[in-house]
Amino acid sequence: NLSIAHGCRAALVGENGAGKSTLLRTLAGLLPPVAGDILVNGKPSACGNPDIAFLAQRHLIEWHFPVTVRKAVLAGRYPHLGFFRQPKKIDREKAGDALRRLGLENLADRPLDALSGGQQQRVLLARALCQEAKILLLDEPYNGLDAESRNVLDEFLADARNREITIIMATHELADAERRFDSILRLEAGKLATIHACTCCE
To answer: Which mean pLDDT values do the consecutive 10-residue runs of the chain (202 residues) have?
Structure first.
C-alpha cells in the first residue's frame, strides 16, 4: 500500500526484475492490477488518462515507425483530443513550444529513426511536455544518454519540480538521490520493501 502526494518526486529503486517497470505500467493503466486498486485523484487509473504520461525504456520503443519528430511530439495532445479529432492551432503551438524547450526545433522534420539515442529520449520528454501531464512515470530515463542529453533531462526534471508535477522514476542512479527526490521507494520481488527520505509518501 502506498499513497503519493501531488508534486512529490519519488525514486523507484530495486534490482533488475524487482517489478519497477511492471509497477509503472500498471500505474499508467497499461496493465491491470493483480489485486487491489490504483487511484489517481480518487478515481481508478485508466489507459489514456491525459493527466498521466508514461515514458517507457527507450530500447523497448519501435523507432522505425514512419513519423517525424514533430508528429511524434504532437501525439502528446491526443489524450486531450480523442481518436477522431484533428489537432488545432493551439495543439500545434504547444508541440512547437515543447520542441524548442527540449532543443529539438531544428530536428522537427527528421524521421525518428534518424536520431541519436539521446535525441530520441528528448522526443519522449517533449511529447510528455506537450501532453501537459500532471504525473510523469519515467522508466530509467538516464540509461544510455550522452552528457548533453543528461543535462537536458536534468533541466526537464527541475522544471517539472517547479511546476509541481508528480514524478515517479525508476532509476539505478542513486548519487545525490536524497537531494534530488522527496522519497526513495525500494521494491523487492514485486513488493514495496522500504521507503527512505520520505516527505510525501505513506
So the answer is: 87 90 91 88 79 85 84 88 79 93 92 89 90 92 84 86 89 74 88 75 69
Strands (E), 105-149: 135-139
Task: Kindly state the cell numbers that stand for 157.
Answer: 526534471
Q: Which three cell numbers stand for residue 116?
A: 541519436
Judge residue 110's burial from the number of C-beta atoms within 10 Å of its C-beta, 0-12 exposed, 13-18 middle, 19 or more buried: middle
> DSSP assignment, residue 46?
-
**Cα–Cα distance between 194 and 32 in angstroms, integer?**
24
Quote the CA–CA distance of 13 and 27 in Å, as a whole number.
Answer: 16
Interatomic CA distance for residues 152 and 125, integer angstroms: 10
**pLDDT number for residue 162:** 83
Cβ neighbours for 98, distance < 8 A, ≥ 6 positions apart? 73, 76, 126, 127, 129, 130
For residues 164-202, one letter each, b for 16 or more C-beta atoms within 10 angstroms of the residue's C-beta and e for the rest, the string is: ebbbbbbbeeeeeeeebbbbbbbbeeeebeeeeeeebbe
Distance CA 117, CA 4 (A): 31
Which backbone phi and psi does 65 adopt, to 5 degrees? -60, 130
- Cell numbers at 82, concatenated: 480523442
